[in-house]
Design brief:
9 helices; binds uridine-5'-diphosphate; single chain; Carbamate kinase; two-stranded antiparallel ribbon
């Protein structure tokens, strides 16, 4: 690929679901290796890459709350799940020789560095992939909100939201075959139509900071790199 990338710095959001492959739970190393290869290809284009990983393949706080347990403790478990995923992705990236650092919003210094904006920017400028673990570090938030927050803090030019399908649809295309697919939308349209692509707080934060959200299929090999040069199939959310 010879075209010049459109962005200097981006934030990729990979949900926990993306890492579990067809297993239905946990981590499929082959799938994580493939996503790591896609990230490596974008790094090779000299784009600075931050990644926020979810934890839904392992644990979600609402699962505790729905069974009468304490939501905050459940969310702590969910945040720890994101750290497990971050370490798995870092391992796959390092196997490919990609310099990678995990920064966690929840301090666990024996395992990874703690998040600070300063440390993250320093790693990015040195060409390292930075994986943001632990979400926002607060219960009642999601890793989508963490993605918008870290993108704003990093001055990322776009949030790449890797999903199960190739963009935003009016309804889940796996359940509603004739759902409409959008090529472009504004942040307001996403919010007003109630489109289930990222939670409201995440979209509102991206809107306030004028950060475009590019929604694409994380399962399409090489798609991340194609989108960096304006190719590939995605829905673009911008004002
Ligand atoms: N979580 C949290 N605060 C955050 C981010 C995540 O409490 O800032 C918890 C929450 O319980 C959530 C879980 O971590 O359900 C996993 O995150 P998320 O559901 O966003 O993961 P994804 O759906 O992207 O896999």
């Amino acid at each position: 690929m010879t075209s010049k990338p459109l962005f200097k710095r981006v934030l990729l959001k990979a949900s926990g679901e993306a890492l579990m492959g067809s297993q239905g739970f946990g981590i499929d190393v082959a799938v994580v290796d493939r996503i790591a290869a896609d990230i490596a290809a974008v790094r090779a284009m000299d784009v600075e890459v931050g990644v926020v990983v979810g934890g839904g393949n392992i644990f979600r706080g609402v699962a505790v709350a729905s069974k009468g347990g304490d939501r905050v403790t459940g969310d702590h478990m969910g945040m720890l799940a994101t750290v497990i995923n971050a370490l798995a992705l870092a391992t796959s990236l390092r196997k490919l020789g990609v310099d990678t650092e995990v920064l966690s919003a929840v301090s666990m210094p024996d395992i990874c560095q703690s998040f600070s904006q300063r440390a993250a920017l320093n790693h990015l400028k040195r060409g390292r992939v930075v994986i943001f673990a632990g979400g926002t570090g607060n219960p009642f938030f999601t890793t989508d909100s963490a993605a918008a927050l870290r993108a704003a803090e990093m001055g990322a030019e776009a949030i790449l939201k890797g999903t199960q399908v190739d963009g935003i649809y009016s309804a889940d295309p796996k359940k509603v075959p004739d759902a409409t697919r959008y090529d472009t939308l504004t942040h307001d349209e996403v919010l007003n139509k109630g489109l289930a692509v990222m939670d409201v707080a995440a979209v509102a934060l991206a809107r306030e900071n004028s950060i475009p959200i590019i929604v694409f299929s994380i399962h399409e090999e090489g798609e991340f790199a194609k989108i960096m040069v304006g190719e590939g199939r995605a829905t673009i959310v911008r004002d």
